[in-house]
Amino acid sequence: MSAAAAARAVPSVPRSGANTTSRPHRCRRASRHRASTSPQSVDVDRETADDDENRWRTLSAPPAWALASDNPPLQGNFAPVVGECVVDDLVVDGVLPRALDGVYLRNGPNPAHEPLLGARRYHWFDGDGMVHWIRLSPGGSGTAENKASYGRKYVRTRGFEQEERQGAALYTGLRDINPIWDVLIPRLVKKVSEWRNPDSPFWVIQSKNTANNGVKYHAGRLLATYESGSAYELELGRDLRTKGLCDFNQTLGTVDYWQVYFIYFCMGNSTDDIMFLFLITGLTT
Fold first, then answer.
1. What is the DSSP letter of 74?
2. pLDDT of 65 above 80
3. 131-169: buried (b, 16+ CB within 10 Å) or exposed (e) per residue?
4. CA torsion angle for 4, 7, 11, 13 (degrees, to 10)?
């Protein structure tokens, strides 16, 4: 359920090396606790990695709980990575075409904590949304940038922030839709407390809006979407700060948040209009 979007020459994402000084490879890594992949800050540089191969092995390594699982969505290319990173000095082999200038973003599931009911119950769609980006700076006439940088950041949904404060998973996933009362009751109380603008429709309680199914840049907004909930807006910059739910210029009201969820979206071929495929569930007649 990954998706991608491109934004060409976006000013708010600076070119690697522009107006900056040399810096180590910053990576937000997890604590030593086995059940967590949530971010805490350390440096991944030459002091902790002997060479580039070890550095990338470190950045790509799954958490221990995922390595111990035989659940296919936690293996191979589907396996989650640990922590958030910004790496400015990617090695460019050759010369970047001058027309290839901009930012490429990809969103996909990356669980920040060991699943509440164990790794065997994890579903591919359950992982917290993580947006990866790569910035290509080929340079223009008379310049010699030819640089690339990479970063990744979690979408700070309400459920993600709640679990970060707790330090553990609090929601179930798509494989566990039957009532689990010690999960359902506290999550229901939480949802009712956000009755003005919940981030998922009325029937989504035990699982959370992970904002993991797509990313789209439209009308000056970068949106992270989810199949069973509303879109979250991100700030298009190196930090990819989560700004909160997108209300589409205040066109979504309370009833809309409780009954509408977005599935997929696309751009019109001859217009700048964005088209959503969405469902409305039955709070109104």
1. G
2. yes
3. bbbbbbbbeeeeeebebbbbbbbbbbbbbbeebbeeeeb
4. 20
Q: How far apart are CA 111 and CA 114, in angstroms?
A: 7
**At 257, is the secondary structure helix, strand, or coil?**
helix
C-alpha closest to that of 214 among 278, 167, 166: 278
The encoded tokens of residue 134 equal 């790569």
Q: Are 35 and 114 in contact (CB under 8 A)?
A: yes
CB 206 within 8 Å of CB 228 = no
pLDDT tens-digit profile of 148-190? 999 999 999 999 999 999 999 999 998 998 889 999 999 999 9
Q: What is the pTM of this model?
A: 0.79
Work out the number of other CB atoms within 10 angstroms of the CB of residue 278: 13
Q: If we measure between CA atoms, which residue out of 182, 224, 223 comes closest to residue 205?
A: 182
SS3 242: strand
Q: List 224's β-bridge partners, or say none.
A: 215, 232
Residue in the structure block whose two tokens are 């700060």:
241
134 phi, psi to nearest 5 deg:
-135, 130
| CA 63-73-225 angle, 5° bins | 95
Question: Pairing mode, if any, of strands 129-137 and 102-109?
Answer: antiparallel
Per the CB < 8 A criterion, the answer to whether 223 and 209 are in contact is: no
pLDDT band for 8, please (50, 70, 90 cuts).
very low
Whether the CA torsion 108, 36, 74, 52 is positive or negative: it is positive
